[in-house]
Design brief:
Length: 355
């Protein structure tokens, strides 16, 4: 019989500890090793028995979650899922946690969600724990050190920064677990006059704005959270806002984005498939589609549709994917014209958009 995935819960709220314990123990493949109230108790438990996965509250008394996370990742890297509030401060801290090697961030359950028996929260947490349990520690160590790596910028001939014309190519990127660092590495390598980029990264609301703002400080291109009606312009990347779908539209010679409400697709909002489907309709062969690390299958079918209309399609390879889910599904569908390590993707984007 297969050994269940052991999880250590670290959260200062007794209510949240009880909720997470009940959710995780409801799955026969998962077993809560312990649920403790602060990192000092957690450190003691880890010495007694190494968990397969840790869920960590980022804002705690005595020792904050970030300090604890840095200690774990420097001494014994293991999969850590961050639980954070949706405040602006919580979002900034959560992004730092991802840079320090946390696998993913989910929003802390609210009393309203508890009363409404939020199945999305439950299913997402269970899926994430199962995906986290198979992540290799070497990949976590790479995540922890990736923010120190010097990115080699791609050099391409200069062009004027202007509204994207109907003959120019647009890049659409989809990512989930492990994607924030992958996207950062790609965008930091691109020159300031790169083609327009639209990105779906599975993240809760408020986190996407903090993510875009952080990238905007680091990159040569402009990075912002997409707002309804934003034009696609050279040298700019738009990040789909959390809890909304983002699609590409066209008015005459102008491409722009529509940010809209809607049902979850593949259990996600924003959904990569929703973005890719709009690119199929409005961009066709004038598109480069990129599917990065992430669990599940969101974006796989959309990437295949892009390939079928003549777009150039790229999937991240297994070796550099933190979670080889979405790219794997795309590869199984033969949706990717090329399968590339993360470090090659910026140059592939530049080569394909210059043609």
């Amino acid at each position: 019989m297969k050994k269940p995935i052991s999880v250590l819960i670290v959260d200062d709220s007794a209510l949240i500890r009880k909720l997470l314990t009940d959710i995780l123990n409801s799955d026969p493949d998962i077993e809560v090793l312990a649920a403790v109230g602060d990192p000092y108790f957690a450190a003691k438990k880890i010495k007694e028995q190494l968990p397969d996965v840790i869920t960590l509250d980022i804002e705690m008394p005595r020792m904050d979650g970030l300090t604890f996370l840095k200690t774990i990742m420097s001494q014994k890297p293991m999969p850590v899922i961050i639980l954070s509030s949706l405040t602006e401060r919580g979002s900034q801290t959560a992004l730092k946690a991802l840079e320090f090697g946390a696998l993913d961030v989910i929003k802390k359950p609210t009393m309203t969600a508890l009363r409404n028996h939020d199945d999305h929260l439950r299913n997402h947490l269970l899926d994430l724990v199962k995906a986290a349990a198979v992540v290799k520690n070497t990949k976590l160590k790479k995540l922890h050190t990736s923010n120190k790596v010097t990115v080699q910028q791609v050099n391409v001939p200069a062009t004027s920064k202007s509204m994207i014309k109907t003959t120019e190519k647009v890049v659409v990127i989809g990512a989930s677990t492990g994607g924030t660092e992958a996207i950062k590495e790609i965008l930091m390598a691109l020159p300031h006059d790169s083609p327009s980029i639209v990105i779906v990264q599975h993240m809760p609301e408020t986190y996407t704005k903090a993510f875009a703002d952080r990238l905007n400080q680091l990159c040569n291109i402009t990075v912002k959270e997409a707002t309804n009606g934003d034009s696609l312009i050279r040298g700019q990347a738009l990040i789909a806002p959390g809890n909304y779908h983002t699609v590409i539209r066209r008015s005459g010679a102008r491409y722009y984005v529509e940010v809209k409400e809607g049902e979850r697709v593949n259990r996600h909002r924003p959904s990569v498939d929703v973005l890719f489907d709009s690119a199929v309709q409005y961009l066709g062969k004038n598109c480069v589609g990129v599917l990065l690390t992430g669990m599940g299958k969101d974006g796989a079918k959309g990437l295949l549709k892009l390939k079928e209309v003549g777009a150039f399609t790229v999937a991240q390879n297994q070796e550099t994917s933190v979670v080889f889910g979405m790219p794997k599904e795309a590869i199984k569908l033969e949706a990717a014209l090329t399968i590339e390590p993360l470090q090659n993707i910026p140059s592939v984007i530049c080569q394909q958009t210059m043609q």
